[in-house]
Amino acid sequence: MKIALDVDGVLADVIQSWLNYSNSIRQKISKHEVSDWDFWKKFQINRYDFYAELSSCWKNWISIPPTEENLSIFTKNLSELGQVDIVTARERSTDSFVKNWLKHHEISFDNYVSVIDGPMKSDLDYDVFIDDSPLNAMKIIQQNKKIILYSQPWNMNISENNIPRITNLSEAIEKIKLY
Fold it and tell me: Which domain holds residue 88?
């Protein structure tokens, strides 16, 4: 079993770090208002500014909270089911910060794979993807691959019955055991 595990929004709550920064320079936004993948549009935030700021948050990687407690235990348990690779879409300049974050939080994984754009993940050879992106989920499903969607406010509009959802990583372990 080859498992592709996403970082931003699944392991690392980087949007919370971005909100802390954004709320210090523009109108306040709460996490529940981040209800779409491209939510920055409804707040009149330039796309390039948003992605640059999000990447910049990784420079202070130590301040990025995990999405949930006990991630090290859950990723270790996932590793017992097969090969777990971190598969992330990001600027290459942030890779070292992400790797520091993963090490700091004792995240178990076999390989670190970085792609330029999220939907490119679907072209990779994995048995199951654990991701929070609605765009990635739809692309993965279109290629007849398995996805487990980590529930976040920005993916609640995905209502496909064939996309299993989880609210924490321990639920993924149970779903993968069924594959």
Answer: 2-13+65-177
